[in-house]
Design a protein that fits this description.
heterodimer, A: 1083 residues, mainly beta, 5-stranded mixed β-sheet, B: 449 residues, mainly alpha, Vanadium-containing Chloroperoxidase, domain 2, 3 domains, two-stranded antiparallel sheet, elongated
């Protein structure tokens, strides 16, 4: 295969140029893309930046954002031509002469441009004459920049006339780029103009500033009114504030209602905007509803259906570096408290500095999977372009990146800059060019990822693309050489444009579709194409203005691997008509125009969902409200919070009327709630003995007749890490239910408890076993607490059992005696066999599976008749990294010998272990590291052994985690093997399970819930797991398909409750209102 | 390397001065190593520069000044009967080891101890080492025996002082809880723009003080009750900060108030953000500025080596305890900064002339420290002591002239209101609080015989 390809490319190259072949013959014959040198192509364009003391990154914050590139056939000869805009130099237009030869016709075409500073360049047929026009965006009004956005109208003879004034498009603002879309479906192309602010404010300011329109920085929605563009931003609901750092924009019909919607990426603390098209000329910005969090320094973004489900997904780029040295020497995320302030006080959304990949769930919020998908860190990234580069039917991803100087280098910020400033005290300028030169270079290789069609990506950079270190920005894709595959064109700073020629050639099949739509929109912008073959669907929507200040060839390109013919293709035109074509041969360029079209209805049949939120929540008004306690303020290096496991919930009859009542515990300083079942609902009843104990943090509760007096009592476990004013507030509480009401007794176990599990033998009223699991030692994370098994009023201490999170009483060896299984963090599940009342730990796991286990439930997932166990873990969408070969490690010791312990997490990268956190975080707790590393350069790239010293590590206790996947223990003759659940269930920690026959088919299923927010901003926010119903390994349905709304909330408990014999699902969240769902509502 | 060259350049001058001594001793012994006040000033200056580079917060910086000075001082009192040891006078300080050899060059030993204790307290040790090693080479070449004897003794005392400071809870306070932001109480301090840094050193009042019997010994009156009612005292004070700032900003950079505010900025880390570009302008701390004034006073009064060490020591003790006293109040009252309130209630685009430092407002640290330092310096050098303050020249600021230390302290205090970072009451009460600390140091420490 390799040889064949080699021979093919050899033949091809041979015929082209002997010299070229000789020069290149010894390298890269397997590369998917080959660099086309300027000498050969004739494309000499280079975006040369000239910096000086008057104009540099200090004067203009987006000095390094680069120019634009647009690919399109301007002379309708079938060959896509190339237009480049340079920041300070003139534009260039290259005519594609075929055979990868290009001719510079800039001068004769009259497109040199007159603005001082150009940014985006996009092609679109603005006057609907079938000939592509060019719109070049400018920055005007700062630093002496003059000019305006220029619109070059195609004269259909390889010349253009600048007519921006005539069209009302000669804006003099701080422009980034523009997108063509027909937002009102009136048939002509409108424009979304993306502008950016130029001064970062020193203070966050209110988020509402975005509502006050600024002429220079505000984005604009421009409606095409018969050839003149009217700014309708204000009435259309488009924000245009002074804080809009608009850097990326994508258009797609995200909610599949026929009207194009808009995603705008904003740099810095301003939120991204998600504009849902209302279909009446207005938009509703809906970011917070659909996105749990976003990228922070949002740069370019792109849209494609990456999991072949017919829905457009989104990537938004940021600047998280992958390289360990760059990572540790660059400014990172906010502190925990700063982010809290910015979100809660100033009203901004959760933003984290890394790429975000948002999987579209139609009406439900997006699932953010960038880390799980392998695309979260591509360094200083500008352009993302999805495309099927290897034509296997699955979308791949190209990312351009790089910056001439890294302005967020920690040594520069803290040491270098100030020394330079010191030296230049007599200069007028604080920082001059010479100082800026001292920032490290950010020239890096671009990235390319191969998609697996399931939202997973593999980094193919080293194999697929040239790995030259460049500063690459605007990117366009299209088929330059007419061989059917996608070539890539990149506008580089201070280097020739990068032309990557795709070598897929005949190795895989393709289909190129050129649309020939109606007048005014002849290129068919906004057309959707669904292609079906081999039971798979590929979906694309034509919006060629994409790729960071750029536009790509206005065609739709599909890859099909070896498929010679596709079954069918559905085309939905922007005018809401559609047609279907059958049996289409691949490997052709097909021009499709509307033919025999029928009206298309976007109306969706209301689907029957298994769950429906009750209107009145059955009277349960409970809202859990965490106190303002932050564990990270007490133990700065702990990996996650440990006092947020609440609330507690218990269901049982508390008033002896035979009906279920509900206990819902409070957070610290919040009263617990007791809901008593009345006719038609639950009613909050105050039991002062219970509600007076609001000082406790309730994390687990059980209702049971503990004292065997015939009436149920209540036992509540307390958690938290606050020990003042006394350790008493960690005591667990036993509320004996007596004729005179409840009587409180403290059960003294001064630990941060996590779970209470009782077990009644033989259905007698007597509680035979009673397990109290403890989670952490207070203010000493890493010291393993004791847990307790109580039977017959005798406590059996399980010394240093581990950081316990959950336990179940279940007969795992099928001997008729109920055993105990305990799970926790930094440990493997522990099995205790019950032999006539004596519990002995036994080894039944085939392999140790150390995890951050959160919860366990028995369930015969493989339906083979024995009991398997489902296990909730941390998930794989995390910066934690663990495998059996390279487990995650946590070192625990008093490293600085000051009487307080520390924990340090280390993860493996390429065979070495590195501390997860940076020098700032580590030295805040261990000042001696500041002495050891007096600058960041010395620290960056150092292994954990080099950072801490081998001796210190040798004296530390080491904990390990070898799997972060949630999964299940498969039972084979009472021994157990771990299998991971699929990726859809690895997006967040799974915190709760419940078993029930939800759909009434007589079979039990498991419902899983999760999400978790108790981590520092470095980790982000695990918010997009919508829950899942698990029937078997193969049959898993996500909560967003079931009518559940568990996204953006952190589930703690799932309970089945009964009201008048009808079952309901009670979902209890941390720091949120509890929800009650009806099941199977249509039955 | 640069340091070395400087010293070599100086060398001929010293050499010329020492020729008579040299001649007298040339046959039997090598020349003696003469240590001058300037050598001590240079060492202090060197440590100041390293502190600026390493970025220490003002309270931590005060600790880095105090202990090395005390080490040096305890050595010179071994020989100079004009001064009394601080043993027994400073909490936990036991007598330093006696020199084995009474012919030890105590000045040299004091200087070596100063450098060595300093080195243990700053981060960039290599910067002290290169400075120290160049001196060591010169000294060793001049008189190896004398140098080695002094060095051995200096380092021995240094170890003694290190053992002592190790017990001041500094290490433990590193891992104590961070300040928890609580935005529910509108009067409570919140992080401020642009860096929104967490409150620094919330446990500094737990650091062992030198002279204060407790951090709360000079607990100031509480600030006026928080109120945004237009006629409340608190609101009037808030408005005053805003109005003065507006007025002097309008008058421009040459306005006397703006000049005063900038002169006394003394912010060790002013972060500047321009888009993705971030950098810092770093200056000396308030304590360091007063250490600079000690040098000016010593030079102007031609203080000899021992008096120089004495002046630095006593002043740095006063500055150190002033920070403890002030920080005790800061995290007691947890008062919100004017910047936060002005943004919320008066003008959301307002920016103070100085960058608001990252800790609660009340009382004003610069006022407390200036009050304490000026009181001690007045005691040492007299009230009628005019001087030209060029401490901030290296940071691009002009010189200012003062007729007394107290006048300088008053200006330092009011500069914080001009700078838009303090209310008037925090300044006036803060200055008083500092004077009380200074008076206690003067009164309690018997250093002169």
């Amino acid at each position: 295969m390799k040889n064949q390809k080699f021979l093919r490319s050899m033949n091809k190259l041979w015929s082209l140029s002997l010299v070229f072949f000789v020069l290149n013959s010894c390298k890269n014959e397997d590369r998917l893309f080959e660099l086309l040198p300027a000498k050969k192509s004739g494309i000499s364009f280079e975006n040369t930046l000239t910096e000086n003391d008057e104009l540099n990154i200090l004067d203009y914050l987006y000095f390094y954002n680069g120019g634009g590139v647009a690919m399109g056939d301007i002379n309708n000869d079938g060959l896509p031509d190339l237009f480049f805009s340079a920041n300070q130099e003139t534009n260039k237009l290259y005519l594609n002469k075929g055979d990868l030869k290009f001719e510079d016709i800039t001068q004769s075409a009259g497109v040199m441009g007159k603005s001082s500073w150009n940014t985006g360049a996009v092609m679109g047929d603005i006057n609907g004459d079938g000939w592509l026009d060019i719109y070049v965006i400018a920055v005007v009004g700062i630093n002496g920049f003059v000019g305006h956005n220029e619109l070059f109208i195609n004269n259909q003879d390889n010349t253009f006339t600048e007519m921006s004034g005539e069209y009302g498009l000669d804006f003099k603002s701080y422009g980034t780029t523009a997108v063509f879309l027909d937002f009102d479906l009136d048939g002509d192309l409108d424009i979304y103009l993306l502008n950016h602010a130029v001064h970062t404010q020193e203070s966050f300011g209110r988020a509402q500033i975005r509502e006050e329109r600024n002429e220079k920085t505000g984005d604009r929605l421009l409606r095409n009114d018969d050839g003149y563009f009217t700014d309708i931003s204000e009435i259309a609901g488009i924000y245009g504030g002074i804080n809009g750092y608009g850097l990326g924009v994508s258009v797609a019909d995200f909610n599949q209602d026929g009207y194009p919607d808009i995603y705008v990426g904003n740099d810095f603390h301003e939120d991204d905007y998600y504009y849902i098209n209302n279909g009446n000329g207005t938009f509703t910005e809906s970011l917070k509803q659909y996105f749990g969090h976003t990228s922070r320094f949002s740069m370019g973004n792109d849209v494609a259906d990456i999991n072949n489900d017919g829905l457009p997904d989104i990537i938004s780029l940021d600047m998280a570096p992958e390289d360990e040295v760059v990572l540790k020497s660059s400014e990172g995320d906010d502190s925990y408290q700063t982010l809290k302030m910015r979100t809660e006080q100033f009203g901004y959304h959760y933003q984290y500095s890394r790429n975000m990949l948002y999987i579209n769930n139609e009406d439900a919020p997006y699932t953010e999977t960038a880390i799980l998908s392998g695309v979260s860190a591509t360094d200083w990234s500008w352009s993302a372009l999805f495309g099927d580069y290897d034509q296997d039917g699955k979308q791949d991803l190209f990312v351009s990146n790089g910056i001439p100087k890294r302005p967020n280098d920690l040594d520069f910020i803290h040491f270098v800059s100030s020394d330079e400033i010191q030296k230049k005290m007599n200069d007028n300028k604080l920082v001059d060019q010479q100082a800026l030169e001292m920032m490290p270079s950010g020239e890096i290789n671009n990235y390319i990822f191969k998609g697996d069609g399931k939202a997973g990506f593999v980094d193919m950079t080293a194999n697929w693309i040239p790995t030259e270190r460049t500063v690459s920005g605007a990117t366009a894709i299209g088929d330059l050489d007419g061989d059917g595959d996608l070539d890539i064109v990149i506008n580089n700073i201070n280097a020739p444009a990068g032309i990557y020629i795709n070598q897929t050639d005949q190795n895989a099949n393709y289909l190129k579709i050129k649309l020939d739509f109606k007048a005014k929109n002849p290129f068919g912008i906004g057309t959707k194409v669904y292609v079906y073959h081999n039971n798979t669907l590929q979906f694309k929507e034509l919006f060629p203005t994409r790729g960071w200040q750029a536009s790509s060839e206005p065609i739709l390109h599909f890859g099909f691997g070896t498929v010679a013919q596709i079954d069918s293709m559905k085309i939905i035109w922007p005018d809401r008509t559609f047609q279907v074509m059958l049996n289409i041969k691949t490997n052709q360029s097909l021009t499709v125009s509307p033919k025999n079209t029928l009206p298309y209805s976007y109306e969706r049949k209301p689907t029957r969902k298994l769950f429906r939120k009750t209107v009145d929540n059955l009277g349960i008004t409970y809202v859990h409200k965490e106190d303002n306690h932050t564990d990270f303020n007490y133990q700065k290096l702990i990996p996650y919070e440990v006092s947020d496991r609440g609330p507690a919930v218990a269901v049982g009859d508390l008033n002896g009327d035979g009906k279920e009542d509900i206990f819902l515990g409070g957070a610290r300083n919040q009263k617990a709630s007791v809901y008593i079942q009345k006719d038609g609902g639950f009613e909050l009843v105050d039991y002062p003995v219970i509600s007076n104990d609001s000082v406790f943090e309730d994390v687990s509760a059980q209702i049971n007749d503990f004292n065997e007096d015939g009436i149920n009592d209540l036992f509540v476990a307390s958690g938290g890490t606050i020990i003042s004013p006394s350790r008493k507030i960690l005591a667990n509480r036993f509320y004996a239910n007596t004729d005179a009401g409840f009587e409180a007794n403290l059960y003294e176990s001064y630990q941060n408890s996590s779970t209470l599990k009782t077990f009644k033998q033989n259905d007698s009223l007597r509680t035979d076993y009673f397990f109290v699991g403890n989670y952490t030692s207070v203010l000493d994370f890493g010291k393993l607490p004791n847990s307790i098994i109580r039977s017959s009023n005798i406590d059996n201490i399980l010394e240093h059992l581990g950081m316990i999170t959950d336990a179940i009483w279940d007969d795992f060896d099928n001997d008729g005696q109920t055993d105990l299984i305990v799970v926790g963090e930094w440990m493997s599940p522990k099995f205790f066999k019950n032999e006539a009342g004596t519990l002995t730990e036994v080894s039944v796991l085939n392999d140790a599976i150390t995890g951050l286990w959160q919860t366990i439930i028995p369930f015969d997932i493989d339906h083979d008749g024995d009991t398997d166990y489902l296990l909730g873990n941390w998930g794989m969408n995390s910066k934690f990294k663990a495998s059996p070969e390279a487990p995650m490690k946590m070192y625990y010791a008093d490293f600085d010998d000051n009487g307080t312990t520390e924990t340090i997490i280390a993860i493996e990268k390429e065979g070495k272990y590195y501390p997860l956190l940076g020098l700032n975080e580590l030295s805040e707790q261990m000042v001696f590291l500041r002495k050891k590393f007096s600058n960041y350069k010395d620290f960056a790239g150092k292994t954990i052994e080099e950072v801490m010293g081998v001796d210190l590590l040798a004296n530390a206790t080491v904990f390990e985690v070898n799997t972060l996947s949630s999964g299940f223990l498969r039972n084979t003759d009472n021994t157990f093997t771990f299998d991971a659940l699929p990726n859809e269930l690895q997006t967040a920690p799974i915190k709760a399970f419940v078993t029930y026959d939800f759909n009434g088919d007589g079979k039990q299923s498991v419902l899983a819930g999760g999400n978790y927010f108790g981590v520092i901003p470095f980790h982000g926010r695990f918010d997009s797991f919508s829950g899942a119903m698990i029937n078997s390994e193969e049959s898993i349905t996500l909560g967003n398909q079931l009518g559940l709304e568990m996204e953006h909330k952190s589930v703690r408990h799932l309970k089945i409750i009964h009201l008048e014999n009808k079952p309901y699902l009670l979902v209890v969240y941390n720091n949120e209102a509890a929800q009650v769902y009806e099941m199977n509502p249509n039955n | 390397m640069i340091e070395k060259m400087k010293l070599l350049n100086k060398y001929p001058i010293l050499f010329a001065l020492l020729i008579p001594v040299l001649l007298l001793n040339s046959c039997a012994e090598k020349e003696s190593i003469l240590i001058t006040s300037d050598d001590y000033h240079n060492s202090v200056d060197k440590i100041t520069l390293i502190m600026v580079h390493d970025i220490f917060s003002p309270p931590v910086a005060s600790r880095i000044y105090a202990y090395p000075n005390i080490a040096a001082y305890e050595i010179i009192v071994q020989k100079d009967s004009a001064y009394r040891s601080l043993t027994g006078q400073l909490e936990g300080l036991t007598a330093i080891p006696k020199a084995d050899d009474q012919t030890t060059n105590f000045g040299l030993a004091a200087l070596i101890a100063h450098m060595d204790v300093s080195k243990s307290l700053i981060f960039s040790e290599e910067k002290v080492e290169s400075y120290r090693d160049s001196l060591y080479q010169i000294w060793s070449a001049k008189n190896k025996t004398e140098f080695e004897t002094a060095k051995a003794y200096g380092l021995k005392v240094s170890d003694h002082i290190k053992n002592w400071y190790d017990g001041d809870l500094y290490k433990q306070t590193r891992t104590m809880p961070k300040f928890t932001i609580d935005t529910d109480d509108p009067s409570r301090w919140q992080p401020t723009p642009p860096a929104y840094m967490d409150g620094i050193e919330p446990h500094w009042n737990k650091i062992r003080s030198f002279v204060l019997d407790s951090a709360a010994q000079f607990k100031p009156l509480p600030p006026p009750p928080y109120s945004l009612e237009k006629d409340s005292d608190f609101y009037k004070e808030l408005l005053e900060v805003y109005e003065i700032s507006q007025k002097i900003t309008e008058e421009g950079d040459s306005s006397e108030e703006v000049v005063i505010a900038r002169f006394w900025d003394c912010n060790p880390y002013v972060s500047v953000t321009r888009g993705h570009l971030m950098f810092a302008t770093k200056k000396i701390t308030p304590g360091a500025h007063w250490i600079g004034i000690v040098k000016i006073a010593c030079k102007k009064s031609n203080a000899d080596f021992n008096k120089t060490v004495f002046a630095y020591t006593k002043t740095s003790i006063g500055i150190f305890d002033a920070f403890i006293s002030c920080w005790d109040e800061k995290y007691r009252s947890n008062l919100i900064r004017p910047e936060t309130l002005i943004h919320q209630n008066i003008d959301e685009n307002w920016k103070p002339i100085l960058q608001t430092p990252p800790f609660p407002e009340y009382s004003s640290g610069h006022s407390v420290v200036s009050g304490s330092a000026a009181t001690i310096l007045t005691h040492i050098f007299g009230d009628d002591f005019s001087f030209t303050d060029d401490t901030e020249l290296a940071y691009g600021l002009p010189v200012r002239f003062f007729t007394s230390f107290n006048k300088a302290a008053q200006e330092a205090a009011i500069s914080r209101m001009y700078g838009g970072i303090h209310y008037r009451f925090a300044i006036e009460i803060g200055l008083r609080q500092g004077i009380e600390v200074g008076e206690l140091v003067v009164e309690k420490l018997a250093m002169n015989k």
